Fold this protein.
Amino acid sequence: MTNVLLTFPIKERFRNALKDQFPKVNFDFSDTIEGADEKEVEILVTYGSDLTEKVLDGLTELKWVMVASAGVDQMPLAGLGERGILVTNVSGIHKTPMAESILAHILSLNRALPIIQEQQKQKIWEKMKSNELKGSTALILGPGSIGGEVGRLLQAFGVNTIGCSRSGNRHDGMHEDILFNEIENTLPRADYVISVLPSTSETRWLLDESHFEKMKKTAVFMNFGRGDLVRERVVVHALQNEQIAHAVLDVFEQEPLPSDSPLWELSNCTVSPHVSALSAKYVERALEIFKENLEMWLSGDEGYKNVIETDRGY
């Protein structure tokens, strides 16, 4: 039998569904990677962070790692690649909750909801300024599955969307597409700069001081991809000096965000504790992709979904 270890907890109904659909597979639902080196694990289903180089060395029978998240930057990709181990993820399942989170923050800021809530606490009846989305422009760094859904929703509100990627190829949900090296020339046009980029050698520290200097003073910067897109000190400087109007950050250079970080205290910064992808449907969607790939694995087919190129990190 094929030995599969899941290192995160799933509900009983999901466990039963897996066992019913795959009676010839031995599922280990112990919810931990500890002791995995003694279990002859062939397939590992993990969120990723528990698979270290040391653990990988002990998994001598491992042939496939199914990562139940989109990011794989914390994993020993070099070692996985050297051993020819298949790596897949659940790219695509985050697009709905993340796009809705991003849209919620944009609408909240535009319609002054934080101010309304604060005034309610203080029992203040006072008008405040608010804006509308129609006619604005959003520069979306990473116009893939998530970025495309963000673009589609924004277009419904009359927003002009510009996708920015390594290839510059045409993407769904974008009115226009540009290359990474065209960012600086495009920033002066953007009312919203939204990043959903993964962490790769090409995206790490992609933005610096020069980029924020070119943004509109009324612009909103939003990072929902990875915290190593830009140094925290760069964002802090831009906010303190009002180079931009606001920042909404769901990911950070260091997580959890240290209590002494200036970002906590800045009134023009929204700190979100890496929660934009959370959804009650998360595990269900992740397991659907796993089951589809497991069917292929058992039948000898190789048309797997969401295969990660370990040398590129995505």
